[in-house]
Amino acid sequence: MDQLMGLRAKFSTLFSSVQSLFGSEEQFSSMVDRIFGGIERMKQVAQKVNERMTNPDETNFVAVCIPEFLSMYETERLIQHLAKMNIEIANIVINQVLFPSDECRLCKARSKMQSKYLRQIVELYEDFHIVVVPLEEEEVRGIELLQRFSKNLLTKKPLPVKQ
Question: Is residue 108's pLDDT more than 90?
C-alpha cells in the first residue's frame, strides 16, 4: 500500500501530461485524489484487520484436516504460513477418522492407512490441542446432525492408531 501511495509522487509528471485526456486539471486532480484516497482507506482497513488477526485474544485459527497425505501437507503449509504472519494456531480437528469394527476389511485397511498419518500428526503437533472426529455415515446437514457433530467436537476420543 505504501508503494502505491509513493507512485503518486513518482508519476506526477506523467499524470500532468495525461490530464488533458480527462478534462480540466481540477477534474483530473479530483479523480486522482479519489483513487489515492480509496487506496489510503484500504490501507487503514488492512492494518486493522492485520492487528486483529495477530492478536491471540481476538483470533485463533483451527486447522481442519483428514488423515491423508495431501490434507496433512496442506495443513502443515497453513500452519507454517500462519506462524510466519504471527497468527495464533493451536488447534487441529482431524475429521473423517475411521473407528472400524472387525467385520469390515475395507474399513480396517483404510484405518491402517489413516493410522500412519494420525501418528505423524501427533508427533508433529504435540503442543497442539487435537480433536478427532469420526467419519459420519451421512453428510452433516440440518440441526440434528449438526448437534451430534458438535458433540463429537467436544468429546475427547483416543486416536485409533494401529501399529
Answer: no
